[in-house]
Specification:
GO terms for molecular function: coenzyme F420 binding; cupric reductase (NADH) activity; ferric-chelate reductase (NADPH) activity; NADP binding; oxidoreductase activity, acting on NAD(P)H. The protein has 217 residues and is of the alpha/beta class. The protein contains 7 helices and 10 strands. The longest helix has 18 residues.
Length: 217
């Protein structure tokens, strides 16, 4: 499919773009600065079909991933609401803050970034996913296996299934249905715990759900 990524020049957006392209998807990397997006796309040329465009043009896709910092999340989605109408929007934004004690979740009035996105994009179908996959591992082409589960949350089971299939673009990963969108708050905030793990153990930790049979999703 054609996948657009809002914030495609940031670490997570770039990493996901690389893996989607390596899996054969057409990728539109979006940015506030189209020239920066073009430079990033050129750096990913060996991965596959990647183009760098302005964020608005990245909405010209079958599915759009939101990978921007939370501070600009609402404003960007509000500005693109008309262009995203009727689209599947995958939100992987983690509302986090940092202080001397480390990372912590930021309170979101709507409950989570994904719920905020669905409120703003009332004519789109929002799914939450890809919060816990290391950007460092995603963007390293020498890494050929990234084990772990991608938690996928949403209201439309058919669309959730589509995103679970997309998770297979990450070699070694598995998409797992993790509930309705209202549960996105715990998924987003758990990223702070993973960052703490990574800092303590100098690693790039992910998560794995046990007790599922092969092929469960």
């Amino acid at each position: 499919m054609k996948v657009g990524i809002l914030g495609g020049t940031g670490p997570q957006g770039r990493g996901l773009g690389r893996r989607f392209a390596m899996a054969g998807h057409e990728v539109l990397l979006g940015s506030r600065d189209a020239s920066r997006a073009e430079e990033t796309a050129a750096a990913l040329a060996e991965a596959g079909n990647v183009a760098g465009v302005a964020n608005a043009d990245a909405t010209d896709a079958d599915l759009v991933v939101v990978a921007v910092p939370y501070q600009g999340h609402a404003d960007l989605l509000t500005s693109l609401a008309d262009r995203l109408a009727g689209k599947v929007v995958v939100d992987c934004v983690n509302p986090l803050g940092f202080d001397k004690q480390g990372p912590f979740p930021i309170e979101v009035a709507d409950g989570s970034a994904a719920q905020e996105a669905q409120r703003i994009l009332e004519r789109s179908t929002v799914v939450a996913a890809f919060h816990h996959v290391s950007a460092v591992l995603l963007d390293d082409p020498s890494v050929t296996h990234i084990p772990g589960d991608v938690l996928v949350l949403g209201e439309d089971r058919e669309v959730v299934g589509q995103v679970i299939e997309l998770a297979a673009a990450i070699p070694g990963a598995r998409g797992v249905y993790a509930g309705r969108l209202r549960l996105a708050r715990t998924v987003e905030s758990f990223t702070a715990n993973l960052i703490a793990v990574n800092r303590r153990y100098k690693t790039h930790a992910g998560i794995a759900v046990t007790g599922l049979d092969e092929g469960d999703a």
